[in-house]
Amino acid sequence: MLGIVIVALCLCAVALGRGQQSSHALNGFDVDCNAVDIPCWQGLVPGVTTISATRLTVEALGYEPNLTGIELADHVFSYQMIGHNPACFDLYYWPENRILKSISLRCLDLTIGDMMAVADAPRWGWKTKGFGEMLYFPGRYTAAVNQNLFMLSPFTTIDAVYIETGLTNSPDPLLALEWMGFAPRWRYCLIEAIHPLCLNYQ
Fold first, then answer.
1. pLDDT at 180
2. CA separation for the pair 87, 118 (Å, rounded)
3. pTM of the model
């Protein structure tokens, strides 16, 4: 019975997300991206698009460089546009060939329910040392949330979305949990009783 309730909640989350397609952050996943099956935002594809073409695209959208002084050291360009969604993001690139490596969308007005509208349900959830709680969505989109994995809901705000060709924030096999929907910890631990996150849980 509880399993049916959890499935119903997940379906409601997807429906709610699909009803909020007006989000600019969500629109970016559709613009010039429908023809590709790899990570894409505003037609920019990590591992394919050059950083020069990337910068021309985002500046044409109205974003302005946010000069932080770290660009040369970290091979990253930062952009911002107050009042937009996302209001800021970082573009990482490989210095050897100047190809876009990853996009880090920040300053977002986006929820897990919104994200599920474009990437279906998460596949994994795990805790990291430097990025907080992470959710991996099919299509190689990784979302960071500032809330315990076992307290998430479709309305949980997403702090950042990482779009990349390879998961630099790949899940630690000892800490990653396969996504089983919006469920409390005890529900996960009934299924994954020997998982490190469940061994000391009563």
1. 84
2. 20
3. 0.79
